[in-house]
Amino acid sequence: MVSVAAEAGLSAETLRKIETGRAPTPALFTVAALASVLHLSLDAIVLRCELVPV
């Protein structure tokens, strides 16, 4: 996890917050950086997201 965070230009703590839901809405830049490091397209991520009814 530390190496993924570092490659994405994030702190390990930021990545932990995203993973545990303490940062439930990461910035698009953050998502894009993680997607790049993990070799995922933003399109693939969007397709996997579901809108949760309020």
Task: Describe the protein's topology.
Blueprint lengths: L1 H7 L3 H9 L7 H10 L4 H7 L6
Helix pairs in contact: 1-3
Would you mind describing this structure in some detail?
The chain is mainly α and 54 residues long. The chain has a single domain, classed as 434 Repressor (Amino-terminal Domain), CATH 1.10.260. 61% of the residues lie in helices and 0% in strands. The chain has four helices and no strands. The termini are far apart.
Quick structural summary:
With about 55 residues, the protein is mostly helical.
CATH class value: Mainly Alpha
The Rg value, from CA coordinates, equals: 12 Å
Low-confidence stretches: none
**Range of strand content:** under 5%
What's the quaternary structure here? single chain
The first-to-last residue Cα distance is 32 Å
CATH superfamily: lambda repressor-like DNA-binding domains
Spell out the helices and strands N to C: HHHH
Number of domains: 1
CATH architecture designation: Orthogonal Bundle
Keywords:
mainly alpha; 54 residues; 4 helices; 434 Repressor (Amino-terminal Domain)
